[in-house]
Amino acid sequence: MSNSKEELAIETVGLVKHFGENRAVDGVDLSVKKGTIYGVLGPNGAGKTTTIRMLTTLLKADAGKAKVLGFDVSKDADQVRQRISLTGQFASLDEDLSGMENMVMIGRLLGFTRKEAKQRGQELLTAFDLQDAAKRQVKNYSGGMRRRLDIAASIIVSPEILFLDEPTTGLDPRSRNQVWDIIRLLVDAGTTVLLTTQYLDEADQLADRIAVIDHGKVIAEGTSSELKASVGSGKLHVRVLDPEARDDAAQILKGALEVDVQLGSDPLVITAQVSDHKHVARALTDLASANITITDFSLGQPSLDEVFLTLTGKPVEDQVKEAEGNV
Ligand SMILES: Nc1ncnc2c1ncn2[C@@H]1O[C@H](COP(=O)(O)OP(=O)(O)O)[C@@H](O)[C@H]1O
Ligand SMILES: [Mg+2]
User: Fold this and answer.
1) Which of 63-77, 153-167, 209-223, 299-313 has the least mean pLDDT?
2) Considering only CA atoms, which residue is closest to atom 26 of ligand 1?
């Protein structure tokens, strides 16, 4: 094995799983470097959970290969299981027990003494801001608290790899942010995280690299910036001081940016989809040389929604509805 291979926490080649005629995972290649956050982004029904279930040895692949920390998920399943942790839609928390009782129970299952399990439970409940709810039954927790407890329970022993299946689906913005902070802390401490998400901004915020998955296939892969670059660099807004100067300004921008520009209903505003940031500086210089005064200027990043639309030709919302319709 080469050095670069040893740096990979997860590697899959041509991974396939079908359920009858449905090719849920249809030849997925992934390379996840150790110590990074990898985002698998796709709508409902794209094949995210099925991929995670194969990587965590819960489901056997029909074809292809998958290695986790260098171990083959089918041949060395035990080795893989010892090194990973999975949290997701089917958590093993006991609803009737309190947060602390759950932590102690899982700690005991992992071989901790009662005292050690309690101590670790205390540490994690405090770290995840659940100390006040430690004695409350989990069935009375909010969605956000539950999700945090779920992650806490899965890192009682620090895993080398943590699989998070849609860790923030259904959470309010504040709980989402808390979960994001937890994930960042874990990665700072050396854990590799593979997370699935339907949220474009979540992948954008957290992931070092992103695989966009649709109908069981990876349709794009790269950093968030690379994916964004595939739909252009963003939208330029320019506001001129004098409405009479707008037409001239539009001509100058068109020439400098080498793209079409749009004149909005606001008589002072011009917008353009920029293909290359380098052109923007020239556009501004050209406007200044023509003595056109600008009162406002902004260059926005394209959203990952736009990326998805460009890649699939459909907005994300439609894909979700379509997938739900198939169930
Ligand atoms: N156990 C199963 N039996 C039959 N079909 C399944 C099963 N699990 C998932 N599927 C189907 O496989 C496809 C991918 O599902 P899944 O991996 O759960 O997608 P995601 O997690 O991205 O929403 C869907 O069409 C789903 O209906
Ligand atoms: Mg899923």
Assistant:
1) 299-313
2) 45
Q: Which of 15, 21, 22, 166 to mutate to test the pocket of ligand 1 (most atoms within 8 A of CB)?
A: 22
| β 63-68/37-41 pair status | unpaired
- Report CA(133)–ligand 2 centroid distance (Å): 28
For residue 238, give both structure tokens.
């320019």
**Residue with CA nearest ligand 1 atom 11:** 24
Q: What are phi and psi of 221, to 5 degrees?
A: -150, 140
The residue contributing the CA closest to ligand 1 atom 17 is: 47
Q: Output the CATH code of domain 232-301.
A: 3.30.70.1150
In this structure, which topology does domain 5-228 adopt according to CATH? Rossmann fold (3.40.50)
* 71-72/84-87 β-pairing: unpaired
pTM more than 0.90: no
Residues with Cβ within 8 Å of residue 9, at least 6 apart in sequence:
32, 33, 34, 35, 36, 68, 69, 160, 161, 192, 194
Structure tokens at 57: 């040895």
- So where are the chain's domains? 5-228, 232-301
DSSP per position, 124-150 = HHHHTT-GGGTTSBGGGS-HHHHHHHH
Question: 49 to each of 8, 9, 42, 101, 168, how far by Cα in Å?
Answer: 21, 18, 11, 28, 14
pLDDT tens-place string over residues 208-259: 999 999 999 999 999 988 887 776 667 889 999 999 999 999 999 999 998 8
